[in-house]
Amino acid sequence: MSTAILTGQPVPGSSIEGDLRSLGFDVRLASDAADTGTLLAAVPADQRVAVVDARFVGHVHALRLGLTDPRFPVAAVPGAVSVQPAARRALIRAMARETSAAGGVAVATENVADRIVTALDADGVDVHRPELGTLVAAVPADPQQRNEIRQAVSAVDDEAVRLRSAVKARDGFFTTHFISPYSRYIARWCARRGLTPNQVTTASLLTALIAAGCAATGTRAGFVAAGLLLLFSFVLDCVDGQIARYSLQYSTLGAWLDATFDRAKEYAYYAGLALGAARGGDDVWALALGAMILQTCRHVVDFSFNEANHDATANTSPTAALSDKLDSVGWTVWVRRMIVLPIGERWAMIAVLTALTTPRITFYALLIGCAFAATYTTAGRVLRSLTRKAQRTDRAAKALADLTDSGPLAELLTRFTRGVASLGPAYVAFVAGALVVLGAALAPYGSWWPVLGAVIYVLLSPVALARPLKGPLDWLVPPIYRAAEYGTVLVLAAKAEVNGALPAAFGLVAAVAYHHYDTVYRIRGNAGAPPHWLVRAIGGHEGRTLLVVVLAALLTAAQFKVALTALAVAVALLVLVESIRFWVSSGAPAVHDEGEPA
Question: Model pTM?
């Protein structure tokens, strides 16, 4: 239970007390500033507390936005302020100052809530002020103004605004026009029946896994069912976020589930398609693994570029200016969002092709579409980076270094790479990655030539740690390392030409990719990278790459398949246990992606 302290004399006919109770607050009345301070001291330290002016007039959803959002320690709308336990001391200091300043003057003539917010601002406390749009929140000074504000409240449909705001502000064409128009009503139905976003997220995962199972049957009926279930899973995936926005049910566990389940669903579906194709005599595991690698590397490009420019200061580049100009024309916005093949368009394409064609055709279309999207977005970001002189911060450089996932070998060799670092980390990483992948691709299975390429890759890998990654193209280093590591595993497994090697490689890449996604969302939540012991335990990108190449040189194809399987299980267990421990802990950040569609 949260507590709301209503300051001042209640206004006859006001619904504020009932509105606060409907939002889950235990309402207490305070006659003046001193009484407010006394009531505040009596509220348990582990409860959220709100201070609301009794004269407040506005929409219930405006109060909900200002007083109940769990993502912000301090939030306020005109006439109301809410503080979570983490910021209670700041509130007590501000309240003590106001009590002293009031000097016994009745609060009926003073807006104590707004004065507290002013004091919090003066103390440097970050006060979240939600965008209200057409919603009304005000404290009228006289009866005439009160009547005018009440009329303004009546003129705006509170529930309609709440439904609109439940939909993500920026989304893909398919999601915006074919899912959100009705999914928001499903979200409201679920919220009114007490269903939580986490429950719907779990239902979406289960639906996708059933879809993957249907695809694995290899029958036409199974493929049709898989396509329909995948689309339904996507609808549920939209609904969970809309419930969270509709009822402000954000949570750290929900953030983790939302961040990881989308990838788990998609990649499990790839595996289901590959199994279904195998039942029909067609081996498409290499295509499935290639699709997963391409999609993961696309995401790493997005994450790295955004982190590098998160707080960079620079003049807008010509490329960025052109992009902004195109975004001002309605139809170009949707075209540009569609060609990057976001999750809605991608899943719709996969579902339709699964139902109507074969897994091989589905993967060909997916690879071609994702390759075009990756080329388009990466080229644009490279041009933007080269044409602007950004001043990147230490925070950005630290984030990029964490995203490289460098292990103990890279750390050990850092002292010897100062001269190499001056050549440019992105260029060195590209050369090193090309050597190890081409070495594996051009040499026969069991050859030691790929080991030489891997040794050079390891020797050059510390370049990412030799100096801060603040160069214009340094954000390319993490995706280059991802492509090199994943690509090497794919090539060697394909070269082994033994049944089960590619599925084992699929499992290994999936486990490592999960670790990299986990790293991204920790950084986004300002929680830092995963613990150092975990990165060292799983070897870092250079250690894992060298190990896989050496295993391929030492072992027979059958033994290599077993080794890949064992390595996949070991990595998966380590990263999952640590990830679950972190994301269900009290220190986990409430990360909710409201930006680019994945």
Answer: 0.90
